[in-house]
Amino acid sequence: MIKQAGLTLIEVLIASMILFMALGLIGTIFQQSFNTQRQAQKYISVAKDYSNLQSRIRYELSAGEATGQILIGTTVYTWKATLIEKAPERTNQSPEMSENDVVFGMLHLFLINVSVEANSSLNFEFKQAIWLSNTD
């Protein structure tokens, strides 16, 4: 009998299947890591713009706007405000004042919904309080 000195076809096929399965698993892990990193960068970008965005929305609300778009850098933010509650600002809360004391303004509490135009999965909301005088 002649002794074989190599691999059979079945052994090569099994080894190659194991190799390709391992490469596929590594590729899937790499792709998920890449997608997670890209999504994290988008959230970091929005978080960086948050204080600027919030102050600009506060300004727009004080000017009487309820919706709008704000461009910060290359990102377009679309926002919409919904009035939740209003409360009067009293001049004096002393017991001597009557129920009809002078009211100078109103506190408006808004719920702000913000969406990022480039990525529909980056939607967020926050509450914003604005004092508006009676002359507005």
Describe the structure.
- The chain crosses the membrane at residues 12-30.
- It comes from Rheinheimera baltica.
- Keywords: Membrane, Transmembrane, Transmembrane helix.
- This is Type II secretion system protein.
- This protein has 136 residues and is an alpha+beta fold.
- It is 40% helix and 38% strand.
- The chain contains one helix and four strands, in the order H-E-E-E-E.
- It is rod-shaped and about 115 Å long.
Largest sheet: 4 strands, antiparallel
Tell me what portion of residues adopts beta-strand conformation: 35-45%
Number of helices: 1
How does the overall form come out from the CA principal axes? rod-shaped
Helix content: 25-40%
Rounded mean pLDDT is: 83
Which strand order do you get reading across the main beta sheet? 1-2-3-4
Quote the distance from N terminus to C terminus: 105 Å
Alpha carbon gyration radius: 30 Å
Summing up helix and strand content along with how strands pair, one would put the structural category as alpha+beta
In total, how many beta strands? Answer: 4
Given as residue ranges, the uncertain stretches (5+ residues, pLDDT < 50) are none
Order of helices and strands: HEEEE
